[in-house]
Design brief:
CATH class: Alpha Beta
Order of helices and strands: EHEHEHEHEH
Distance between the termini: 15 Å
CATH topology: Rossmann fold
Structural class: alpha/beta
Number of helices: 5
Strand order of the largest sheet: 2-1-3-4-5
CATH architecture: 3-Layer(aba) Sandwich
Largest sheet: 5 strands, parallel
Strand content: 15-25%
Length: 121
């Protein structure tokens, strides 16, 4: 496959978990960011095929980062990573241009299913 994914989360343990799940499924990790500000800059730099984006982060929220990335690239494919109970924020992110969401704690099969669906459009 070789599709490149950028992981955005302020918790390194979450990025590691996603790295494991996605690499096992044959995806390449194009880059990582720990907050929204970093995510926007990094997106421009690595131009990934897909981004997983945490909602709650320091400096710039995932929702604001989605808005900024969509401004740079209206076709960006972004999946939100949400904790249970963040439904209103997930909806806000989807209105801002995110394509889908996955829920923490991650179910590896579900993660791969959502990633595949979004990449295949």
């Amino acid at each position: 496959m070789g599709q490149r994914i950028m992981l955005v989360d302020d918790a390194q343990v979450i990025r590691l978990m996603l790295t494991r799940i996605l690499k096992d499924a044959g995806y390449e990790i194009a880059g990582e960011a720990g907050n929204g500000v970093e995510a926007v800059a990094k997106y421009e730099e690595v131009k990934p095929d897909l981004v997983t984006m945490d909602i709650t982060m320091p400096e710039m929220s995932g929702i604001d980062a989605v808005k900024e990335i969509i401004k740079q690239d209206p076709n960006a494919k972004i999946i939100m990573c949400s904790a249970m109970g963040q439904k209103s924020m997930v909806l806000e992110a989807i209105e801002a241009g995110a394509k889908n969401f996955i829920i923490k704690p991650f179910d590896p099969e579900k993660v791969v299913e959502v990633v595949r669906a979004v990449l295949e459009g």
